[in-house]
Amino acid sequence: MKFYPLQFTPILKGRIWGGNKLNTVLNKSITADANGESWELSTVKGDVSIVANGKWKGKSLMDLINEYPTDILGTEVYQRFGKEFPLLFKYLDAKEDLSIQVHPNDSLAKARHGSFGKTEMWYIIQADLNSHIIAGFKEHSNSDLYLEHVKNNTLLSTLNEVEVKSGDAFFIESGTVHSIGAGLVVAEIQQTSDVTYRLYDFDRIDSAGIKRELHVDLALEAINYNSLDTKIEYSKETNFPNELVSCPYFTTNFIPLDGQVAIVKSKQSFTVYMCVEGSFELTYDDVKVDYNKGDTVLIPASMNSFSINGKASILEIYIS
């Protein structure tokens, strides 16, 4: 069986805080005025990615995994997760601030929702002047203080606000109170989970004049009340996989590509490339495929030898 690099039809999500930069910055074919997310690679129930290229065009990612589990996922990933695809890949456009939120860890998410937890990372693709994120508390807190500040509408004053620029990266472990601020386009790599506890939503109302639901009490057990350093310091050596994150859920490298790089992988994990700047060409078995800014491609685990060539900034993600 000949496997090949797989691209998928983006699953576009309208969000109250979204804008149009998924189109203007990342070349997505959006139609709504407030598109907040492009789910590039997903097996979340109801939002399973569909292949957009090659002989398997029109098949779902789950169909391929069920038919060729080790070839797609890799031997080690299949051993750990069975036929579940453990990661979710997104691009986000925050025209306005996202809600202040938190995600539960694996044990809490499994007990409450039958789901993975949600540890994630962000890579800032584009940032307007003075844009910021929120990540964690300024100082160590606790559940009583948290509830008091929610009651007094002063939660924002306790949270750590960080000014950001293009190229910044952040590791947001489950339990970290966080928000992506207005004016940011972000690549997000996360566990396969859509469980979010919303703590504060800036008193916004939706198109029906209704405020979105908050989950203040559900979040009590989920929150890590410590002060956290979430910003990632990383190298930018050309034509080299500079490590951003290595955690039990995923490894992410940053590759500043300028020329050609030969890549040889084990067959233990799939690899995903997200092109966050420029363009590159991937060559395998004398076949060449072009990718541009905003493209995401899944390399099946059985495709363990290929090369990339071009001038681009690429996120490389796999499970180790």
Automatic annotation (TrEMBL):
Its cofactor is Zn(2+). Residues 9-113 form the Phosphomannose isomerase type I catalytic domain. Binds 1 zinc ion per subunit. GO terms for molecular function: mannose-6-phosphate isomerase activity; zinc ion binding. One of its GO terms (biological process) is carbohydrate metabolic process. PANTHER family: FRUCTOKINASE, TRANSCRIPTIONAL REPRESSOR MPRA. This is Phosphohexomutase.
